Amino acid sequence: MGKRKKLAIYPGTFDPITFGHLDILARASAIFDEVIVAISRQGAKSTLFSLDERVDLARKVISQKTFDCPVRLEVFSGLLVRFAKERGAATLVRGLRAISDFEYEFQMALMNRHQKGEVETVFLMPDERYVYLSSSMVREVARLNGNLSAFLPRPVIAALKKKYRHPKRLVS
Ligand code: ADP
Question: What's the topology of domain 7-132?
Answer without folding.
Answer: Rossmann fold (3.40.50)
